[in-house]
């Protein structure tokens, strides 16, 4: 009872200063339902199974702690990519600095504007995948998002998008506390690439709900960095139809606390879902990837590939689960999580899980942690490669399997350059 009371007390304090956004109709009803889900759960603590490796105290706090930006940062992520730019500043859509949404050849609308419509295609999507993703593992920060998010973007794709859609997050305030909710509906046979980048807030809570129709494709690449003091909890909820393809890759550099949750439901036969991530942490860095993939149909494939490079006491967490429901025969599930520790002070905590209720499946998982191979390092040094360059080459080689999940060569090269830049900035002995 004491644990339940503590969770409810934390929730009461967290939402005391929040107000449900204006508006009724379908969006108001969805927000009310999310608030009811949140009230039943409370906020998490270290005694919750999926939060025992990550302290949620700063996410539970009534106010966000101030966080300054790293003004040494170079070019904006994906700056060399031909893309449609949608800009948010301190959690508010900035139309003046965004491109014309029509240029991508898809239907794009800010959440605030859509909420005033009596009928909207997002009515059956907003909060729906988040609600479904609450079982069997509660995700209270996602429910909080669905209840209180006042802005975001709604994207509906009926064919192949002309160019990637890029969500760019900027902030002016050191104490910004931002909640954004995006919904994406990809109709049968359609195709969309979504990019996310930029320092969104001192404390950031985001939800991305993606409904991928039969034979449709969704490619998602996200770059988190440039704000070493940020605290963030992000969620991706996806539902895949028959023969649908879903691929998501996240690059995370810096940040005091980052928790990225991905929940995927392979609901149609022959669907494919790949979720990958590369994280680099130096010093005060805690990074948590929590993934839950459900195989609910036949002949589906899933891959989870996560690599972390940690130094000077940085902490990495991976919690990944593959659930194969009864009847989901011919399932092919793969999961790997690995960490490269560049010193003896950092740590990696892993919790891989398989739960299988079908008898004709192929599922595997593995998790390893170690240091740079001294023999390989010696080989490079003996060929005249300087020490720092040799270490950088081995780190990039370690991350290569995760980066291979990015299909677009130009986007992959952009990510690789950001990795090299981070390694160059953090090649000294002291934490940055």
Search tags:
single chain; 432 residues; alpha/beta; 10-stranded mixed beta sheet; 9-stranded mixed beta sheet; 9 helices
Q: In order across it, which strands form the biggest sheet?
A: 2-1-5-7-9-11-13-15-17-19
Q: Order of SSEs, N→C? A: HHHEEEHHHEEEEEEEEEEEEEEEEHHH
Q: What structural class do helix, strand and pairing data support?
A: alpha/beta
Major sheet summary line: 10 strands, mixed
Number of helical segments with 4 or more residues: 9
Strand content: 35-45%
> How much is the average pLDDT?
93
In total, how many domains does the architecture comprise?
1
| Shape annotation | globular
Distance between the termini: 42 Å
The proportion of residues forming helix, as a percent range, comes to 10-25%
Compute the CA-based radius of gyration.
Answer: 21 Å
The tally of beta strands, per DSSP, is: 19
Compile the SSE list and pairings.
Layout: H1 2-15, H2 25-41, H3 57-60, E1 84-89, E2 92-93, E3 107-110, H4 111-114, H5 128-132, H6 140-148, E4 153-157, E5 165-170, E6 177-186, E7 191-197, E8 203-212, E9 217-224, E10 231-240, E11 245-253, E12 257-266, E13 272-282, E14 286-295, E15 301-311, E16 315-324, E17 331-341, E18 347-356, E19 361-370, H7 374-382, H8 387-403, H9 409-425
Parallel strand pairs: 1-5, 4-6, 5-7, 6-8, 7-9, 8-10, 9-11, 10-12, 11-13, 12-14, 13-15, 14-16, 15-17, 16-18, 17-19
Antiparallel strand pairs: 1-2, 3-4
